[in-house]
Write a structure and sequence with these properties.
With 115 residues, the chain is mainly β. 0% of the residues lie in helices and 50% in strands.
């Protein structure tokens, strides 16, 4: 059974930082590309960042480039998202994903950026 569990969300001030983690189990983590997506209140799902199975390549949505960094530790079956220089528009529920839109999803973690 595939399980993805996000953690690390919370309240941050504008300009602050948060680090999200996603603990994966039930599949061969090091053979799957992984992604982070988010959904802001009243908006659709937005892909934020992705990373190849071996970490050799990454992609970012334009609004988070140079602020967010996706990484993974295949020895720990864990995906990360380091978020710096946070903005109020980054407020959303952040989801960990394996296998794209038809794949597997975590339950999400709330990130709120507000002063």
């Amino acid at each position: 059974q595939v399980v993805l569990v996000e953690s690390g969300g919370g309240l941050a001030q504008p300009g602050g930082s948060l680090r999200l983690s996603c603990a994966a189990s039930g599949f061969t983590f090091n053979t799957w590309a992984m992604s982070w997506a988010r959904q802001a209140p009243g908006k659709g799902l937005e892909w934020v960042a992705g990373i190849y199975s071996d970490g050799s390549g990454t992609f970012y949505e334009d609004s988070v480039k140079d602020r967010f960094t996706i990484s993974r530790d295949n020895a720990k079956n864990t995906l990360y998202l380091q978020m710096n220089s946070l903005k109020p528009e980054d407020t959303a529920v952040y989801y960990c994903n394996a296998g794209g839109s038809g794949g597997y999803w975590g339950q999400g973690t709330q990130v709120t950026v507000s002063s």
